[in-house]
Specification:
The protein has about 325 residues and is an alpha/beta fold. It has a domain at about 1-180 and about 235-260 and about 300-315: NAD(P)-binding Rossmann-like Domain (Rossmann fold), CATH 3.40.50.720. It is about 40% helix and about 20% strand. The strands form four sheets. It has a seven-stranded parallel beta sheet with strand order 3-2-1-4-5-6-11, with helices on both faces. β1 (about 1-5), α1 and β2 form a beta-alpha-beta unit. The chain is globular and about 55 Å long. The mean pLDDT is about 95. The structure holds nicotinamide-adenine-dinucleotide and uridine-5'-diphosphate-4-deoxy-4-fluoro-alpha-D-galactose. Uridine-5'-diphosphate-4-deoxy-4-fluoro-alpha-D-galactose binds near residues 84, 86, 124 and 228.
């Protein structure tokens, strides 16, 4: 039997596919390539050492999904497919609700009909909203501040209701903190189109001279150096978390929300320093106004993941920066995806 990975050509999905293949799992990859390049699929095959079926299908397309479940023997689904840009979600909320919420309902209906009732879902620390009560625990109050966050919270609720309605379902709702870094090989990583919103891809573009300087959004937060603090985790650690979650849904029923983070926060300036050390390149920056919607500090209490999944992040900030740099440099050298 195989694991269907929706959004498997994306940043986190591609790293997870490699780990699944290397662990001996059979996979089926689904992606509509709205935010991924087809070349990624060959890189997954190269790194994973095996071939697998690929479906260029949209999760909103029910017939496409039904065809996959008719043709393939799917045991469980790891569901990454979704739109993820917070700012964009404010501008085009209906697209976000349709893609992330309707798409997931579609997927679950097709899964149910096929008798496949195990799902690992990409939720986000964004469901903790702008609470200041860190570290965030899974039972911390939830709130959202933008349509993207609302889609994650809604899908969590939908999956909880689904599990409550049918005891055969199991769902792991993984709340990621800030994934960064890249595959050691430099063949997979995060390569957003246009000007990046997130810190690490932005720093990487400054390092290779594609952007002039980093704007540090605020240095007057209540943090040790005044800049925002986040729980950055290596994308490969995060990918491995999905294999543990897969084991969990195989052996448990019901819905469970679980944080995936390191439990340690770093400030923007600490990340800049770590990147400079890893790359040997000085990152010019200026202090800019706070970015609307940002909170001072966000980091996980990761103890539930350790207890229930036996998972812990092991890779350091230095390793995250070194791997991101290696990937960026390879892209720059014309090895681009
Ligand atoms: P990504 O954009 O790189 O990957 C998502 C993939 O899904 C892309 O390959 C895209 O082409 C595909 N996709 C989007 N809509 C689709 C649809 N309707 N049908 C089929 N495929 C579709 O993003 P990522 O960073 O790998 O994130 C994966 C998941 O994790 C997303 O659901 C995201 O919201 C969630 N998440 C990401 C972060 C982060 O910081 N990267 C943090 C928390 C949660
Ligand atoms: N930052 C800068 N300059 C930049 C970009 C970011 O100073 O150019 C700062 C931000 O102000 C923040 C920190 O760097 O303090 C991290 O910002 P990111 O944009 O990289 O990440 P966020 O924590 O804001 O958001 C991420 C994801 C969201 C998700 C959230 C919680 O992008 O989708 O984590 O999981 F909702």
């Amino acid at each position: 039997m195989a694991i269907l990975v929706t959004g498997g050509a994306g940043y986190i999905g591609s790293h997870t596919c490699v780990e699944l293949l290397q662990a001996g799992e059979d996979i089926v990859l689904l992606d509509n390539f709205s935010n991924a390049k087809p070349q990624v699929v060959n890189r997954i095959k190269e790194l994973g050492g095996r071939d697998f079926p690929l479906y260029a299908v949209d999760i909103l397309h029910r017939e496409g999904l039904e065809k996959i479940f008719a043709r393939e023997d799917i045991e469980a689904v790891i569901h990454f497919a979704g739109l993820k840009a917070v700012g964009e979600s404010v501008k085009i909320p209906l697209d976000y609700y349709q893609n992330n919420v309707s798409g997931t309902i579609n997927l679950c209906q097709v899964m149910a009909r096929a008798g496949c009732k195990k799902i690992v879902f990409s939720s986000s620390a964004t469901v903790y909203g702008n609470s200041t009560d860190v570290p965030f625990r899974e039972d911390s109050p939830l709130s959202t501040t933008n349509p993207y966050g609302s889609t994650k919270r809604m899908v969590e609720d939908i999956l909880r209701d689904l599990c409550a309605s049918d005891p055969e379902w199991s769902a792991c709702l993984l709340r990621y903190f800030n994934p960064i870094g890249a595959h050691k090989s430099g063949l997979l990583g995060e390569d957003p189109n246009g000007i990046p919103n997130n810190l690490l891809p932005y720093i990487a573009k400054v390092a290779v001279g594609q952007l002039e300087q980093l704007n540090v959004f605020g240095n007057d937060y209540d943090t040790p150096d005044g800049t925002g603090v986040r729980d950055y985790l290596h994308v490969v650690d995060l990918a491995i978390g999905h294999l543990k979650a897969l084991d969990y849904v195989r052996t448990h029923k019901g819905a469970e929300a679980i944080n995936l983070g390191t439990g340690r926060g770093y400030s923007v300036l600490e990340v800049v320093k770590a990147f400079e050390k890893a790359s040997g390149v000085t990152i010019p920056y200026r202090i800019a106004p706070r970015r609307p919607g940002d909170i001072a500090t966000c980091y996980a209490d990761p103890s539930k993941a350790k207890k229930l999944l036996g998972w812990e992040a092991t890779r350091s900030l230095e390793e995250m920066c070194a791997d991101a740099w290696n990937f960026t440099r390879r892209q720059q050298l014309g090895d681009s995806l």
